[in-house]
Design goal:
The protein has about 600 residues and is of the alpha/beta class. The chain folds into three domains: about 180 residues, 3-Layer(aba) Sandwich (Rossmann fold), CATH 3.40.50.300; about 70 residues, Helicase, Ruva Protein, domain 3; about 190 residues, Peptidase M41 (Methane Monooxygenase Hydroxylase, Chain G, domain 1, Up-down Bundle), CATH 1.20.58.760. The protein is about 50% helix and about 10% strand. Strands 6-8-9-10-7-11 form a six-stranded mixed beta sheet, with helices on both faces. Strands 1-4-3-2-5 form a five-stranded mixed beta sheet, covered by helices on one side. The chain starts with 5 loop residues before the first helix and ends with a helix. The protein binds adenosine-5'-diphosphate (ADP). The site of adenosine-5'-diphosphate (ADP) has 17 residues, from helix 8, helix 13 and helix 15.
């Protein structure tokens, strides 16, 4: 329900009061007396229609002949009235106006409004409670709002989680324990109380936790770390207590705390510390100590910032097992694609290996998205099955955004972009440690790229040699080099390349120990390895200046090499750029064919 301002309720109250006191109650009480004008009274007297009449000090009350209706009218100076009335046959007496019973009038004017107020108050109170505590009554502050999934509702099994074999193997043991705890207790082994799933976003941590519950068929409590953090100090702690109470009642069961870093951050002891968070964390630590191992409550938690967790939380006896859930490798990506492709209607001959290779570095969630984008694309083009081309195009959509159909580039701009892209591809192809070119295109994308060259590794890469990194830098500078060699100018199109080349060169020198001067000294430390991996320098200012000098030297040397390679192959550069300019998109095979001609 949208929030309504208090004035809204105040207005309702006033309207109800007005209605009862001014309009409804007086109306009801006087319903029997009909008010008429003096002329009607005179006419009725003349026609002999008046039954009983009573002249009061400020008004005249009278009835009709049958004494069915009571009328009332004002007083007028009227001399012969008494005689006329007498002549008409009216009787003088008292007209009894039947007052509404005092009880009814009391009920109408007092009890009813109070009942209405009380109902309104109750309703408002409920709304406020809902907003504040998430419970139904006034005592529900601090109740945990963990969602319970039981076997039938999650339905996720290990077979739905593709790749991640090590993580699955690790968690399989937990499932086995929940099925057969005696096997473990008889030998004296106790299960870990807590298991921490760590890895980049979208790699299936939540899914794995649900799969453990799905496989073992036990209740599954799921709550996000941020839900513990409340407005009032102490509320989070009471939620933790409540969660563990519920879990113990339902044991054996699994409690899953997503984004545990929201409450489990290191306590830094600074004055500005967040009291509420610390209390919540303390409570969590106490609860985890408090219950015995082997009582059937298994706590799973997920985070993508393991280094920020409090050491007390990760020590043995609490979260004593850490399960890495990494980005999938080539085989994993292929399997994930296949798992998600089961849900869509696809043509039978699709080569998922090609798609998996193109989507290098993609997480499980991104791969699921790629499959869905492909299905949407098939619908858009009026087909009833997803084809290979849909999947290939949707990889590009996820990497670079949608095609910008109506971006208007001038002829010269298009030519420069064609040279730029061929520059990358050619420099890459003329070196020996680079990945083959898969596709080159100069169709602008919504991400802002005016074109791109896609290079795809053949298999998995776990190690990169110095030569490969250096050649990657050369390839990145190839675009700008082609502009210089062929167009005699330089453009802003290289900004992204410049950023990437600099980052790579800097990492080679400060993290990978690939410069002769610094040997194997770490000059930078990486934070948040799962969230982009920012690095911060850890060295003296003089050293920083030296690092900058070496980075420039490294990139400059590779840029020169790229320019030399392109100048030596000027004729091929022109031919390929012309071809790309004509076609807009060319495949790696077409590129290699022209390159190897003559
Ligand atoms: P996390 O908790 O690690 O951020 P989730 O478990 O919420 O990621 O995954 C998000 C979605 O990504 C899932 O719903 C699923 O569709 C997809 N996904 C991620 N990893 C996998 C995987 N290994 N196998 C199949 N689907 C996956």
């Amino acid at each position: 329900m949208p929030k309504k301002p208090l004035i809204f309720y105040a207005l309702i109250v006033m309207a109800v009061m007005l209605f009862f006191n001014l309009i409804a109650v007086p109306k009801m009480m006087q319903a029997q007396v009909i008010e008429t004008d003096y002329g009607t009274f005179m006419d009725m007297t003349e026609e002999g229609d008046v039954g009983i009449v009573e002249v009061q000090t400020n008004q005249i009350l009278f009835t009709d002949k049958d004494e069915q209706r009571i009328y009332k009218t004002g007083l007028m100076p009227d001399d012969g009235l008494t005689e006329r009335l007498h002549d008409s046959g009216a009787r003088f007496g008292s007209v009894i106006v039947e007052e509404t019973s005092p009880l009814l009038s009391f009920v109408l004017s007092w009890v009813l409004p109070i009942v209405v107020f009380a109902a309104l108050g109750y309703f408002m109170n409920r709304q406020l409670m809902k907003r504040a505590g998430g419970g139904s009554g006034a005592m529900s502050f601090g109740k945990s709002n963990a969602k319970i999934y039981v076997k039938s509702t999650t339905g996720i099994r290990f077979s739905d989680v593709a790749g991640e074999d090590e993580a699955k193997e690790n968690l399989m043991e937990i499932v086995d324990y929940l099925h057969n705890p005696k096997k473990y207790s008889s030998i004296g082994a106790s299960m870990p109380k807590g298991i921490l799933l760590v890895g980049p976003p979208g790699t299936g941590k939540t899914m794995l936790a649900k799969a453990v519950a799905g496989e073992s068929g036990v209740p599954f409590f799921s709550i996000s770390g941020s839900e513990f953090v409340e407005m009032f100090v102490g509320m989070g702690a009471s939620k933790v207590r409540d969660l563990f109470k519920q879990a113990k009642e339902k044991a054996p069961c699994i409690v899953f705390i997503d984004e545990i870093d929201a409450i489990g951050k290191k306590r830094d002891g600074q004055f500005s510390g967040n009291d509420e968070r610390e209390q919540t964390l303390n409570q969590l630590l106490t609860e985890m100590d408090g219950f015995e191992g082997n009582n059937g409550v298994i706590i799973l938690a997920a985070t993508n910032r393991p280094e920020s967790l409090d050491p007390a939380l990760t020590r043995p006896g609490r979260f004593d097992r850490r399960v890495p859930v990494e980005l999938p490798d080539l085989k994993g990506r292929e399997e994930i694609l296949k798992v998600h492709a089961r849900k869509i209607a696809a043509e039978p001959n699709i080569d998922y290996n090609v798609i998996a290779r193109m989507a290098s570095g993609a997480s499980g969630a991104e791969l699921a998205n790629i499959v869905n984008e492909a299905a949407l694309r098939a619908v858009r083009s009026g087909r009833d099955k997803v084809a290979q081309s849909d999947l290939e195009e949707s990889v590009e959509v996820v990497i670079a955004g949608y095609q910008k159909k109506n971006a208007i580039l001038t002829d010269t701009e298009r030519r420069v972009v064609a040279y730029h892209e061929i520059g990358h591809a050619l420099v890459s192809a003329l070196q020996s440690h680079t990945a083959p070119v898969q596709k080159i295109t100069i169709i602008p994308r919504t991400s802002g790229a005016l074109g791109y060259t896609m290079q795809v590794e053949e298999g998995n890469r776990y190690l990169m040699s110095r030569e490969e990194l250096v050649e990657q830098i050369a390839t990145l500078t190839g675009g700008r080099a082609a502009e210089e060699v062929a167009c005699g100018t330089i453009t802003t199109g290289a900004s992204n390349d410049i950023e990437k080349a600099t980052k790579l060169a800097r990492a080679m020198i400060t993290q990978y120990g690939m410069s002769e001067d610094f040997d194997m000294v770490a000059l930078e430390t990486v934070h948040n390895q799962y969230l982009g991996g920012d690095a911060s320098l850890a060295c003296s200012p003089e050293m920083q200046a030296e690092i900058d000098r070496q980075v420039i030297e490294l990139v400059k040397a590779q840029h020169q090499k790229a320019r030399r390679l392109l100048s030596e192959n000027r004729e091929k550069l022109d031919r390929l750029a012309d071809y790309l300019y004509e076609k807009e998109t060319i495949t790696g095979a077409e590129f290699m064919k022209i390159l190897n001609e003559s």
